[in-house]
Design a protein that fits this description.
742 residues, mainly alpha, 32 helices, 1% strand
Length: 742
């Protein structure tokens, strides 16, 4: 079933928009973090806004002028329209940015990213006030928008007025400017109120630009004039907000970096990429990345700004995101119930992309240029079939790396890796066992088992569940979760090489797909070697106490290399298992029986092997603490939640969709390692990770291209071999074979 769904997934139309939106979200929060650091360093917000807008306008101006000159069918302009553009520039580009950045100055990028998710709710309320929207309590879509608005506003109020106890705290020096702003509740509340006011201004602008877009069809002209008016208005307003001429002298440093980085990435790159993503996937796809910005802002704030994460902020952010998705669901449901013409009328009003915190008018109106085309493409995007699989895969990736980080902390605290493996497998097996037994008993058409098949299951359990986990966790112990997450992206390359060695795959140098897989394999292995044998200078360093166990492991190059070699060996074992389980799946069609027996054999093998790897009985006494947390968290999230969610995602979207999230785990592992384990980020590791990810995507592209060239029956045969769910570093057989059930 997954194969049929994955047919519609092409590299340029599906994978690249996903990668582009991830990059946009990361760049948005990076810009906001750098701007916050620049303002903490003394740069006034209006100075940044003026320089940022002027530089961005200068970069984009030639393209706008060329586009306007080439459009011979442009409707004539009137004074009324120019005045409308003037008001739009005042509201969206001038006032919105002033309020947004002033709010960030008094609060944090985390609050800004959370409260920007109020945009659909604010727009809905303003549209109701302007009688452009009606509330029908008998309509599920109207009730969803109303309840989502109430939920989002409640979360925003909680986020603003209640911080609560600290969940995570990073010690700062007493004179730290970040600590100064975050330690004043009055400033925090004031900043939140400013951000809420900015959101209301943005919502009013959203409604007005909707009416303007219906009245004047040439979007490029609208963009040009209100960007021009907005930039001029910022310049005119600037002497009143910052009369000190010395503040306008831009010195080399964080301020100049913020201006250039913001202009290039927030304006040029973002506007181009968002427009392209809207054209390819539609507004629902673009909008669903918005709550992800909260997570990225929290991590960047904690890591680089020294922010503290509070309970009230975390709960408020979750509530706001819930309200955001509820309103978005109501909008999507309402559009699906309307005829096409009515949807075109609502398109600009409902546009979710206008919530950017940096230059909403430049971005959103340029984005809405593609809206009519995007509406048609977005029809294929439904909540359960597209949005929820995306959210589920993000949760899986985060929970995987969280589990690996917790396991690393437990091993640094003295827990032996085999102890974790045994307890983790036994607990996970006990949880899943009843479901497997029920499924096996209900399957009356199950093929007959033979001694040969049972021996095959035994070998699969030995390779995948026992040896792979022992090698993976031992490799993490000597290196880091970052290296494990990077080297797990070798799985397609290793599987390709093993398949060639077993003569299950042929290399045809005349075939672009075969060349892609071969070159991707070489690239990925080269990146893995660089990651393992060359750390290079530190890019980011977190000071730790001399007796820190994390520092101990990371300061020994021999341990780092040894851990990397163990992880590579584990990857080779996993690739051999991948080929063998492919052959087994063709020979024995009942996947649930395969899962049950090799999980059973693998768990028993781990138990039998454990006394030889850890003979000390005291090490097996599991005390309350990080070790017990690691076992329970790993069993619940890495086994139960992950296997269920991956299976569902494979059924909904296919293996290509599931596989493309794998390189994202490297970024999450780096951030978690730096934040919670005190890891240092090295240049060699960063370059190696990028090279490995490039090789991974190259091999995946070759596999996808090859499948599209084959008949349907052959694709089904190749499905299990190419499935990338098997690259998990914790319990590949439990997860992957359950996943391949689909």
């Amino acid at each position: 079933m997954a194969i049929k769904r994955s047919e519609s997934w092409s590299w340029m139309n599906d994978v690249m928009p996903f990668v582009a939106m991830l990059m946009i979200t990361c760049f948005d929060m990076s810009v906001l973090t750098i701007v916050k650091a620049a303002m903490n360093d003394g740069m006034p917000s209006i100075v940044y806004i003026v320089y940022h807008d002027a530089l961005g306008m200068l970069i984009l101006l030639p393209f706008y002028i060329i586009g306007i000159c080439r459009n011979d069918r442009r409707p004539p302009l009137s004074f009324h329209l120019l005045f409308r553009f003037f008001v739009l520039g005042l509201l969206g580009l001038c006032l919105y940015q002033v309020l947004a950045y002033e709010g960030v100055y008094y609060s944090s990028p985390t609050m800004a990213s959370a409260l920007q998710n109020l945009t659909p709710a604010n727009t809905f309320l303003i549209a109701v006030a302007f009688r452009m929207e009606k509330i029908d309590i008998r309509s599920s879509s109207s009730l969803a928008k109303l309840s989502g608005t109430i939920i989002a506003i409640s979360g925003a109020m909680l986020f603003t007025f209640y911080q609560g106890p600290e969940i995570f705290h990073k010690n700062l020096s007493p004179d730290s400017s970040n600590q100064l702003h975050l330690s004043r509740p009055s400033d925090w509340i004031f900043g939140g109120l400013i951000l809420v006011a900015g959101g209301v201004v943005g919502a009013i602008w959203n409604v007005l630009q909707s009416a303007t877009a219906r009245e004047y069809s040439d979007q490029r002209t609208i963009v040009f004039f209100f960007c021009l008016f907005g930039t001029i208005q910022c310049i005119v307003l600037s002497p009143f907000l910052e009369p000190d001429l010395n503040a306008w002298v831009l010195q080399p440093g964080i301020g100049m970096i913020a201006v250039v980085f913001g202009a290039v990435f927030s304006v040029v790159f973002r506007s181009t990429a968002i427009t392209w993503c809207l054209e390819k996937k539609g507004p629902v796809f673009v909008a669903m990345f918005s709550p992800l910005s909260i997570v990225i802002a929290v991590i960047m704030g904690v890591t680089f700004l020294g922010d503290s994460l509070h309970l009230g902020s975390a709960i408020g952010a979750v509530i706001v995101a819930t309200g955001f998705y509820t309103v978005m669901w109501g909008q999507a449901k309402e559009k699906n119930m309307l005829p096409m013409a009515a949807r075109d009328d609502l398109s600009t009003l409902d546009e979710p992309c206008s919530s950017d915190q940096t230059s909403p008018l430049i971005l959103s109106k340029n984005e809405s240029n593609c809206y009519n085309m995007a509406i048609k493409r977005s029809e294929a995007w439904s909540w359960m079939n597209d949005v929820m699989p995306f959210v589920a895969m993000l949760m899986i990736t985060c929970s995987d790396m969280s589990a690996l980080t917790i396991v690393k902390a437990a091993m640094n605290d003295g827990m032996a890796s085999i102890v974790y493996v045994v307890y983790h497998d036994v607990l996970g097996m006990l949880i899943l066992l009843p479901f497997y037994i029920i499924g096996i008993c209900r399957n009356d058409r199950r093929p007959q088992l033979s001694f040969h098949l049972l021996f095959r299951f035994f070998i699969l359990g030995l390779l995948g569940l026992c040896l792979n986990q022992v090698l993976a966790n031992e490799g993490v112990y000597y290196s880091s979760p970052t290296m494990a997450s990077a080297l797990q992206n070798l799985a397609p390359a290793n599987t390709f090489l093993i398949a060639v060695a077993f003569r299950m795959e042929k290399i045809d140098i005349r075939s672009s797909s075969s060349l892609a897989k071969l070159s991707g394999t070489i690239i990925a292995i080269s990146g893995a070697m660089l990651f393992t044998f060359y750390q290079g200078p530190e890019i980011f360093h977190k000071n730790m106490s001399p007796d820190s166990s994390n520092q101990l492991h990371l300061s020994r190059p021999s341990d780092w290399i040894f851990g990397g070699l163990i992880l590579i060996a584990g990857g080779v074992v996993g690739a051999i298992w991948n080929v063998l389980q492919s052959a087994t799946a063709r020979e024995f069609s009942d996947q649930r029986t395969i899962v049950f027996f090799f999980c059973l054999f693998g768990t028993i093998q781990c138990i039998v092997l454990s006394p030889f790897l850890e003979p000390d009985l005291n090490a097996w006494a599991l005390q309350p603490g990080i070790g017990m947390i690691a076992v329970v968290y790993g069993a619940v999230f890495s086994v139960v939640f992950r296997s269920t969610a991956i299976t569902w995602c494979l059924e909904k979207k296919g293996p290509v969709f599931v596989a493309m999230f794998s390189p994202l785990s490297i970024v999450i592992a780096v951030i978690l390692g730096v934040t919670f384990l005190g890891d240092s980020l090295h240049l060699g590791s960063a370059i190696g990770a990028v090279i490995v990810a490039t090789g991974f995507y190259t091999v995946m592209w070759g596999q996808a291209k090859e499948k599209n060239m084959l008949p349907m029956t052959t694709r089904v045969d190749l499905n299990t071999l190419d499935q990338q769910g098997s690259s998990d570093q914790t319990s590949p057989l439990i997860l992957s074979k359950n996943e391949s059930n689909r």
